Amino acid sequence: MSTLTLRPAPAPTGPPAVPATGAHARLDSRVRFGAGIALWAALLLVTGWWASGGGVRDLGGWESGLTSAGRLTGLLASVLLLVQVLLMARMPVLERAFGQDGLAALHRTVGFTSFTGMLAHVGLITWGYAAGELSAAPGELWDMTWTVPGMLPAAAGTACLVLVVVTSVRTARVRLRYESWHLLHLYAYLGVGLALPHQLWTGQEFTGSATRTVFWWGLWTAALLAVLVWRIALPLARSVRHRLVVTAVVPEGDGSVSVHLAGRRLDALGARAGQFLTWRFLSGTGWTRGHPYSLSAMPDGRSLRITVKDLGDGSAAVARLRPGTRVLVEGPFGRLTARARTAPDVLLIGAGVGITPLRALAEEFCAGPGRVTLVHRYAGTPLFARELTALARTRGCELVPVAGRRRGDGSWLGHGVGPVDDLTALRTWAPDLAHRDVYVCGPEVWTGLVLRTLTAAGVPAGRVHVEHFGW
Fold first, then answer.
1. What is the pLDDT of residue 19?
2. Cβ neighbours, 10 Å, residue 284
3. Which pLDDT belongs to residue 18?
C-alpha cells in the first residue's frame, strides 16, 4: 500500500476562524441565484413575445388554439434545450457554483422537461395544421417533414433526442455499460443542432423582430461556443501543456489500484483536493472514452494521484497501465472542495472507494484550523488505512473506521457499530454535528441515507456537500 510522507501541521492558536473560503461559498450562492433568475427571465421573455404576437388571442379557436399552444411549447422547449447544453458545457462559473452533481441533476430535470415540451410542440402544431382532426395528424406530419424547410433535419434531431432520453431513464441506464451510455449521450449535441435551426429560419417567434432574432441567435451561438471552448479546446490545450504521463501503478487492495502521474506545471492545472478529472489513457483501444476518477491525494503542483476500483469496463484496464503512458485530461471538476466550506469544523463521510476524494480533503483540512472527523465505512479491506492512520497521528484528524457491510436497507452504517441507530452513532462521533460542514461521497442510494440522517440531525442543507459515485 502506497504511503505519502506527512509532516505535522503547526498547532493553531486561539479559536479556529471560519475559513476564508466562506466568501467563495457566498459568491457561489449568488451565482446560483443569478442563474435561476436568468433562466426564468428567458422563459418569461419568450412567453411575452408569444402573447404579444397574438398567442393568447389564438387560444380562442380550436385549430388556432392547438397551433398557438404548439408555438408556446416549442419556444419554451427551445430555451430549455439550449440551457441544457450550457449546463453540461463545463463552464467554470457554473461548475464552481453548482458542482458536477448539481449540474447533472439540473441537466436531467431540464432535459426531460425540454423533451416533453418538444414532443408537445410537434404534436400540437401538427394537430392544428391538420385542421384539428386527430386522424389526419400523421399524414400532416409526413407532409410537413418533407415539404417545410428545415423539417427533415429537425425530424432526425428529434430521433437523436429520443434515443438520448430513452437511454437516460434509470431502468435503461442500469442495463448499459458506462462507455455505451456516454457515447449515446453525445447524440444530444447532434439532436439539438438538427432540431432547432428550422425555427431560426422559419419560425415567426424567432424572426418577428431584430430583438428576437438577436436573442435566439445569441443564445444558440453561446451554447455552441461553450461546447467548443470548454468541452473541446480547453481540454486539448491543457493536455498538450501539462503532458501528463503515468509514473507508477500501485495495488491498494480490495481490487483497487493507485495511479501516480507526473507532468509539467501542474500547479497551473488548478486541481484541488476533492475534485475529479476525466481521464483518457493513450494505451490502446478505448482511449477515446473518458472516465471520471477523483484525486486521492492533495495536489502538490508536481504530481497527481488517482485511485480506481475494478468495477468492470474501463476501470479494469487501469491496473494494466504501464509507466510512460500518455494521458489526456478534462477538468478538474467538482465542488467537493474547500471552496464550499463555511464552518471551521468538518465531518467527512465516505463509503468504499468513495473515500478517495475525502482522503485528499482530509490531508488538506487537517493541515489547517478546525477539527476534522473522517467516518469511513467499508465492507472488505479499507483503502488508505496506513495513510489515514498517519493523518490521525501526525495532524490530529479524528478517524472513525466503520467495518462491515450495510446492516439493512434503512441504514448506511456497517454491522461493526452494533445495535445503535444511525443518528445516535453520528451524534456520538460528532456531537456538534449541526455546526459543521459535512462532505459525503459514495454510491447514490447510500448517500441518500446519509443525507436523511443529516437532515434529522439538523444540519443545514447549505453545509452538506455531496458527490455520488454513479452516472
1. 46
2. 9
3. 42
- Give residue limits of the domains in the chain: 22-237, 243-333, 339-468
Identify residue 376 by its one-letter amino acid code: H
| Amino acid code (one letter) for 175 | R
pLDDT score of 351: 87
pLDDT (tens digit, 9 = 90+) per residue, 135-182? 888 888 888 878 877 777 777 777 777 777 777 666 656 666 666 666
pLDDT at position 24: 80
* Fold observed for domain 243-333: Elongation Factor Tu (Ef-tu); domain 3 (2.40.30)
Q: Facing residues of 402 across strands?
A: 377
Neighbouring C-beta atoms of residue 105, cutoff 10 Å: 14
What is the CATH T-level fold of the domain 339-468, as seen in this structure? Rossmann fold (3.40.50)
3-state secondary structure of 155: helix
Those residues of the chain that have pLDDT short of 50 are: 1-21
Q: Which residues of 247-266 are buried (b: 16+ CB within 10 A; e: fewer)?
A: bebeebeebbbbbbbbbeeb
Tell me the C-alpha distance between 446 and 410, whole Å. Answer: 9
DSSP structural state of residue 54: T
189: which strand partners? none
How far does CA 444 lie from the centroid of its chain? 13
Q: Which CATH class is domain 22-237?
A: mainly alpha
Nearest in space to 202 (alpha carbons), one of 149, 254, 265: 149
